[in-house]
Write the structure tokens for this entry.
Amino acid sequence: MRRLVLSILVENTSGVLSRVAGLFSRRGYNIDSLTVGVTQDPSMSRMTIVAYGDDQILDQIKKQLSKLEDVKQIVELPLGDSVCRELVLVKVESTPQTRASIIEIADIFRAKIIDVATESLTIEITGEQAKLQAFTELLLNYNIKEIVRTGLTGLMRGNDDIHKLLEQ
């Protein structure tokens, strides 16, 4: 199985997310990660979808997505030729004895302490998934109370952009 990261330019209209997600569910494909946001053009949104499967399934996903009327451009973001990041917020239990150790781990990973409470710290970290996984594994020793992840988002490296590809 391999990982497929798709950057998809879609019309920014109601129901687009439902139609894209429905395509996956109708065919029994799983979405590992999905992020959506409006682009610099308010009439367009960009979706980043991560899925896993064999080559046949992943090719079928791309073909089926390209048939949707709302989908204007699909770009596969290959490893090494794209920049992908994820945001994680972690609330970790903190005592006076453990607080300095947790802050030190956050500093090493260039994470930010965004909330301090009497019995917890909330930390924000962005980066590649491997970095985030290593960070959260270290925090397991301190009792993670809550964790939330945004899902992967990314862009192609270099001067090309999805809008230029759409114009070609």
